[in-house]
């Protein structure tokens, strides 16, 4: 195995993360920002948790479907954003904070974009639930995946040939001596 192949794997991993991230954002944009032909519209919900309370009054099945849909809409960002970043050795708290902040900003951009789309209604509860979904996905998957990838990287490093173990290394570089001025 060549030493440079680990760097190529990281580049492919990041490229896959960026590609999947863009594909997911395009799908979310299409789902949330397309005009809808509806006979009537509800008012924008700017009161936190008011929409969640209203969803809970619809019964367990409808509440699970509506709240779960909002939780799952941006949840893949909790995994795809760190994957696109490509960092293995990073503080778990810093990674969580960056990912949740980016997820909240993307959700906010979607909600603000919906203000000009016919048939779409701004809902602050969507922002809250989308952000919670990103955080949950990150906490559930990213630390375990990073630990697994770090173990694989350590195994690859152990498998590399070491200096003096049958691999010719060439001549040792020397530094030319410079005389001291009088």
TrEMBL record:
The keyword 4Fe-4S does not apply. Pfam families: VanZ (PF04892). Keywords: Membrane, Transmembrane, Transmembrane helix. The keyword Coiled coil does not apply. Residues 22-142 form the VanZ-like domain. Residues 163-182 are annotated as: Disordered. The chain crosses the membrane at residues 12-33, 71-89, 96-115, 127-149. This is VanZ family protein. It comes from Streptomyces brevispora. The lineage of its organism: Bacteria, Bacillati, Actinomycetota, Actinomycetes, Kitasatosporales.
